[in-house]
Specification:
heterodimer; A: 172 residues; alpha+beta; SH3 type barrels; six-stranded mixed sheet; 2 helices; 28% strand; B: 127 residues; five-stranded antiparallel sheet; 5 strands; 31% strand; nucleus (chain B); mRNA processing (chain B); Sm_dom_euk/arc (chain B); LSm4/Sm_D1/D3 (chain B)
Chain lengths: 172, 127
């Protein structure tokens, strides 16, 4: 083969990153469905959903429809409180609460994905769990600060004749 | 079982609705339609920050303003059971009709039944 010198490099890339997809997977013809029906394979599996208001919900996908309205069972909502990069000594904190059967209107979904139930909690080992109401309070405070900051930014941009597309409802 | 079908199964049960603006609305579901518009009764509405509460006897929510709904825990099982009962009822009705159409001067009926059988089995396969 004339391309043999390149091949070792390619295989080494694939070994480095197990998440590198096969090239075939990138072609749309490999998918039976490309619209909301594409999530039919995730039914009865554990998924996470990110909502437009920044919520993270985890649960078992039971049913969905053409609008990507989702019904989750045994849902848990989790808040991640990231600390500033400067203070690495402070542990990152999270909180979660049980939400039961949860029906999400499709237009509020930013993204969803399947979870590997063997590994889903691995990352939490470096995180410290705190009570949910406490985390919620802190989150709303930081979101309010963010909205304020963005509004100021838009105002400043406007004085220069520029428009910012920040919407307070998009906090993801 | 589609989400909106599940919602119709939650009629007369207490649900929680959160709107896009963060307001939450607790109440008993009276009715809903295919746009997810809801009517509730015995409602408690709370403000986005959860500091103000309002008691309302009846309310109507336009579906487009909904962010998410929290439904009763047992709903999935109930809906499944209800569905099974409906299916059995349908099968029984079909069998009855087939029994009637076995007499020779009702041939046209028999073919009509065959068609309706097909259309009935389609939603069953979805589950």
């Amino acid at each position: 083969m004339s391309t043999s010198p390149i091949q070792p490099e390619q295989t080494s890339i694939q070994q480095k990153d197990p998440l590198t997809p096969n090239v075939e997977d990138l072609y749309l013809e490999s998918y039976a469905f490309t619209t909301a029906a594409a999530i039919v394979g995730s039914v009865d599996r554990k998924i996470f959903v990110v909502l437009r208001d920044g919520r993270n919900v985890f649960g078992i996908l039971r049913t969905f429809d053409q609008f990507a309205n989702l019904v989750l069972q045994d849902t848990i909502e989790r808040i991640y409180l990231e600390t500033e990069e400067a203070q690495e000594s402070v542990p990152k904190r999270f909180a979660e609460t049980y939400r039961g059967v949860f029906m999400i209107r499709g237009e509020n979904v930013v993204m969803m994905g399947e979870l590997d139930i063997d590994k889903e909690d691995d990352h939490l080992q470096e995180w410290q769990q705190i009570p949910f109401p406490e985390a919620e309070k802190e989150l709303t405070a930081s979101q309010a600060a963010k909205i304020k900051e963005q509004k100021l930014k838009s105002k400043n941009l406007l004085t220069k004749g520029l428009i910012s597309d920040f919407a307070p409802s998009d906090l993801y | 079982m589609l989400p909106l079908y599940l919602l119709t199964a939650a009629k007369n049960q207490p649900i929680l609705v959160e709107l896009k603006n963060g307001e939450t609305i607790n109440g008993q579901l009276v009715n809903c339609d295919s746009w997810m518009n809801l009517t509730l009764k015995d409602v408690i509405q709370s403000s986005p920050h959860g500091d103000e509460f309002l008691k309302i006897s009846e309310c109507y929510i336009k579906g487009i303003h909904i962010k998410y709904l929290r439904l009763p825990e047992q709903l999935m099982d109930q809906a499944k059971e209800q569905n099974l009962q409906n299916m059995e009822q349908r099968n029984r009705n079909n069998q009855k009709r087939r029994g009637q159409s076995s007499n020779p001067n009702a041939n046209s009926n028999a073919s009509a039944n065959a068609n309706s059988n097909n259309s009935n089995s389609a939603p069953q396969r979805q589950q």
